[in-house]
Design a protein that fits this description.
Order of helices and strands: HEEEH
Structural class: alpha+beta
Number of strands: 3
Strand content: 15-25%
Helix content: 40-55%
Number of helices: 2
Length: about 110
């Protein structure tokens, strides 16, 4: 039994290391989102860090419109990044979970 416990602890540590490596890799995954008319473009990492914002000059004339564009486009970019992030990290975590009876139902196996 003690050996099983040590094996599970080792597997959990290995999974934690894989999760950390995946988080670092997701810093290099860039996603782009644009407004429907392409007047505003946002580049964001899969870890939800904004890297670049491109604004068409025409949007600089109307502050309220620019603010609306920023909110909508940034929210779409963050949603997309969150989906990629959760999918990648979830796959690593699920793969590394030890086989504990009764835990299958928690992870939808």
């Amino acid at each position: 039994m003690f050996g099983d416990m040590m094996g599970m602890m080792g597997k959990l540590k290995e999974t934690q290391e894989k999760v950390e490596a995946t988080k670092k890799r997701l810093d290099t995954v860039y996603l782009q989102e644009s407004s429907s008319d392409n007047l505003l473009q946002v580049t964001i990492t899969a870890n939800r860090q904004v890297k670049e914002v491109k604004i068409d000059d025409s949007l600089l004339e109307d502050k309220e419109q620019l603010e609306d564009y920023l909110v909508l486009t940034l929210n779409k970019a963050i949603e997309k990044a969150t989906q990629v992030n959760e999918t990648e990290l979830g796959a690593v975590a699920k793969e590394g979970m030890p086989n504990i009876p009764g835990m299958d139902s928690l992870f939808g196996k």
